[in-house]
Amino acid sequence: MRQAYNLHCYIDDSTLIENAGNYVAQIIQKRWTPSPVLVLCGPGGNGGEGFVVAKRLAKSGWPVRVAVLIARESTVAHLTELWDGPVEALTPAALKDAVLVIDAIFGTGLNRPLGGQAALTLACAAERKMTIIAVDVPSGMYSDTGASEGAVPCSLTVACFHKKPGHLLQPGRSLCGELLVDSSETSVTQSAQFIPDTFENGPTLWVDRLPMLQTVGNKYTRGHALIWGGWPATGAARMAAMGASRIGAGLTTIAVPEVALQVYAAALTSVMVSPVARPEDFGRLLADARYTGLIIGPGAGVGPETRAYVLAILRTGRATVLDADALSCFKDDPLTLFNAIVGPCVLTPHEGEFKRLFEGLLDMKGDKLTRARAAAHTSGCTIVLKGSDTVIAAPDGDAIINANAPPTLATAGAGDVLAGIVVGLLAQGMAPFYAAAAAVWLHGAAASSYGLGLIAEDLPGLLPKELQKLQKIWNHNY
Ligand SMILES: NC(=O)C1=CN([C@@H]2O[C@H](COP(=O)(O)OP(=O)(O)OC[C@H]3O[C@@H](n4cnc5c(N)ncnc54)[C@H](OP(=O)(O)O)[C@@H]3O)[C@@H](O)[C@H]2O)[C@@H](O)CC1
Ligand SMILES: Nc1ncnc2c1ncn2[C@@H]1O[C@H](COP(=O)(O)OP(=O)(O)O)[C@@H](O)[C@H]1O
Ligand SMILES: [K+]
């Protein structure tokens, strides 16, 4: 885990500013032919990088103008030495004939909403649809949360040293436009000095923990996923079952109310069904320790019956996923749920379900990363707070931000398949935080491989190809 991306660090070194500015200038020279450039510089390190960009481009013969937010004397002293050419005031008038606008007003130092001439000038550039290139982050976007107070959409953002959470979390991710990261040697060396707790999701984080097939083994050694199947919304549990099976659970069973037996049985082949006429029947099923991953929620319905089944599942202490209705039915009494959790557990709420469960317990105004972390701490579970920027948070404070999910996943049932993938990995013995991260990433990769027209039923069938790619990485590394 520790060799993975570090999204939090701060380096106080003017050499780094010089390097980062040079890197941004190089990118601009590679991507564009010489054209009139306006560099907007703020009073701190970000403005310093802007001066370096200006110097480098001017040296290469580009027509460059520099506009500063405040008098140059007020800028951090050593940074003013980076640019000895003329400067003008940073106002919308400075935009005049510019073709490229370099936004080096504020970076990680942003500590209040963008206002005054900085806000006016950027808004004006955006309104004129000028090409805006952000140094480190779009000014007005908070680098640690992705929240925006005045940032405008950029064509390109060049992150200095490493990605920050704001590059991955919405709306920051969308405001950045294309994102490039300075991967120069200095940058990588500096980033490695920090002990991170926030990561960008990717196979590096968990590929070594993926369950791999053993030559000697049988279906039981690959784990058995048990899904509570609701009625009358039977599709949700079936999609979860396909997710669990395709990710490698050796067996998948759906426990179904007797009334729904025919519906489930007629629609399933390799996935088994087990009828539950009375609560005792479910208890008997759960007593079988060969069920190594349990899930309830997709299509379960909100009511006392689902609550009772959730609590019965949790009493086993075995690895569990609680999704959808299993979360919503504890809206008025979340502590009963949390107190019942004694084993490894993953909660997979979307924002609506998250609010229902945690509203009375957490500050809902916080950013997504903070809220997911707090929820993991409060519940003692791994939290998968879903969306286009899904955050996976562990009770110990580690968090992973996912950025590979395409918008085609905004389709009914996609979450059910995801929950099934998580339980399929849990059933095979993967630890909850890593199972959740791997599932979210594979879900995004599978959806991306399909393109437009995706429906949730497509997702399980797309997993094998993604698994095979991971197997190659695994074989190469281990
Ligand atoms: N320094 C280094 O070693 C490195 C620097 N790096 C580069 O510099 C960036 C960080 O530099 P930085 O810390 O100087 O902050 P920066 O974002 O330029 O802001 C300057 C000052 O502006 C002010 N201010 C804030 N919000 C405001 C607002 N809305 N409206 C008006 N004023 C506002 C606030 O000061 P205040 O007014 O609160 O005293 C703040 O301190 C980083 O993103 C990267 O690009 C990195 O590459 C790593 C190495
Ligand atoms: N705009 C989007 N971009 C990327 N992923 C998305 C987007 N909208 C939703 N998703 C993902 O799709 C899934 C939807 O899950 P959920 O809201 O529970 O839907 P359902 O209950 O219909 O299955 C989640 O994994 C979520 O992260
Ligand atoms: K900036």
Please characterize this protein's 3D structure:
The protein is α/β, with parallel strands linked by helices. The chain folds into two domains: 14-200, YjeF N-terminal domain (Rossmann fold); 216-477, UDP-N-acetylmuramoyl-L-alanine:D-glutamate ligase (3-Layer(aba) Sandwich). The chain has helices at residues 14-31, 45-59, 77-80, 116-127, 165-168, 172-176, 185-191, 234-246, 261-267, 279-286, 304-315, 324-328, 334-340, 351-358, 368-379, 414-427, 432-450, 458-477; strands at residues 37-41, 64-68, 88-89, 100-104, 131-135, 156-159, 178-181, 198-200, 224-228, 251-257, 272-276, 293-296, 320-323, 345-348, 382-385, 391-393, 399-401. Strands 8-17-16-15-14-13-12-9-10-11 form a ten-stranded mixed beta sheet, sandwiched between helices. The structure holds ligand NPW, adenosine-5'-diphosphate (ADP) and potassium ion. Ligand NPW binds at residues 11-13, 16-17, 20, 42-47, 49, 106-114, 135-136, 160-161.
Annotated CATH architecture of the largest domain = 3-Layer(aba) Sandwich
Structural class by helix and strand composition: alpha/beta
User: Total helix count?
Assistant: 18
What quaternary form is this? single chain
Low-confidence spans: 1-11
Order of strands across the main sheet: 8-17-16-15-14-13-12-9-10-11
The CATH topology name of the largest domain reads UDP-N-acetylmuramoyl-L-alanine:D-glutamate ligase
Small molecules in complex: ligand NPW, adenosine-5'-diphosphate, potassium ion
Cofactor: K(+); Mg(2+)
InterPro entries: Carbohydrate_kinase_pred_CS, CARKD, Nnr, Ribokinase-like, YjeF_N_dom, YjeF_N_dom_sf
Subunit structure: Homotetramer.
Catalytic activity: (6S)-NADHX + ADP = AMP + phosphate + NADH + H(+); (6S)-NADPHX + ADP = AMP + phosphate + NADPH + H(+); (6R)-NADPHX = (6S)-NADPHX; (6R)-NADHX = (6S)-NADHX
